Amino acid sequence: MEGHRQNDAQYKLIADQNSFARFGEMTPAFVMTYLLPLLIILIAFASLSGEKERGTLKLLLSQGVSKTSVVLGKIAGVWLSVGLFVLPLFLVGLGFVFSTNYQADDLSRYALIFLTYLLYFGVFINVSVLFSAFSKNSNVALVGLIGFWITSCLLIPKFTANLSKYLHPTPNAVEYQASLKESLEKGLDGHNPYNEFAKAFEDSVLKANKVDSIQKLPFNYSGLIMQAGEEHERFVYDKHVQQLNDVYLAQLQMHQISAIFSPTVLTKMLSMQFAHTDLQAHFHFAKKAEDYRIDLVRQLNGNLQNNSKYGDWDYAAKPEFFKNTVKFEYVPTSLAETIQVAVSGLLFLMLWFLASLGITTAMATKLNV
């Protein structure tokens, strides 16, 4: 952060990467979101189709077991296998939470992330058993499930990203900086006394204080004009940053719409919201940090204006000033606020889970042995 301007983030690694740069990072989120659904498919694709191919399904049903019970038993069996992988991972993650200076909200957020992934895995388990039950053989079931995984994990996210950028394009860095510079030049520059707006401001201050030179003012004019320049700059920066953020939010809205058709997109969005790593959380932090910067600069300029003489650039604020200035204490959004934003996505993911389970159970009676 800098005293007199809002800076863009520099040395961003993602700027040098292509759109699939993050796909191959072996992070816990990557494993849970992409690899475990593949594992579920490999476990479940032959759960019923293999029984039909071996002839054991007909033998099982001849013992008086209902088709619905067989299907639900297969789902429960896959859940048991998946649980052997999932539970240790979440327990390790819980250990990391306990090893930090966690708050009560953190445990609740972690529980919601756990619930989100359980629903997500449940969707893949239900769909995998459904494909296995009604495919001619295991190979057909595997191909169909791989197609479902590719569509949910790759095609819909990639298509949505490209479409959102096409419909809501972001300005390139050169255009953005040029527009920002043009707007800044149309107002007061607190560090350029020869600026036409600065001269008009100086005349108004002299007239208001009934003096003919800034040296005769009862305060340090430098602090006053720098603060006036800060206020103009903040107006300009806030306007341009908000315009850019509106574009990002419009793109995000398209991702939220596409998430209805992809449990993967839904899961990624929900987990980011509960973990405070989503776009809104970034905007919230950036806004609070900028408010802190502006408040601190305002106090610095006020201290210079009231406690120094014009032209005294060797003036230094006393240590007591910095002890009493505003402190940056960031308070993130509460869990209630996060839930209010995430509730629709969570409901859609629950709908995916219940619909896939309901369809699989309802179609069980039509299972062809």
Structure description:
There is one protein chain. With 369 residues, the protein is an all-alpha fold. The chain has 2 domains: 28-169 and 348-366, no CATH class; 171-342, no CATH class. Helices cover 71% and strands 0% of the residues. The protein has helices spanning 28-44, 49-54, 56-61, 67-98, 104-134, 138-167, 173-184, 196-209, 221-258, 263-274, 279-307, 319-324, 335-362. Helix 1 runs parallel beside helix 5 (104-134). The model is unreliable at 14-23 (pLDDT under 50).
| Overall tally of domains | 2
Distance between the termini: 68 Å
Share in helix: over 70%
Q: Tell me the structural class.
A: mainly alpha
Taking Cα atoms only, what radius of gyration do you get, to the nearest Å? Answer: 30 Å
Average pLDDT, rounded to a whole number, is 87
Question: Residue ranges: pLDDT <50 for 5 or more in a row?
Answer: 14-23
Order of helices and strands: HHHHHHHHHHHHH
Shape: elongated
Give the count of helical stretches. 13
DSSP E strands, number: 0
Largest sheet features: none
In terms of DSSP E residues, the strand content is under 5%
Topology:
Blueprint: H1 28-44, H2 49-54, H3 56-61, H4 67-98, H5 104-134, H6 138-167, H7 173-184, H8 196-209, H9 221-258, H10 263-274, H11 279-307, H12 319-324, H13 335-362
Helix pairs in contact: 1-4, 1-5, 1-6, 4-5, 5-6, 5-10, 5-13, 6-9, 7-9, 9-11, 10-13
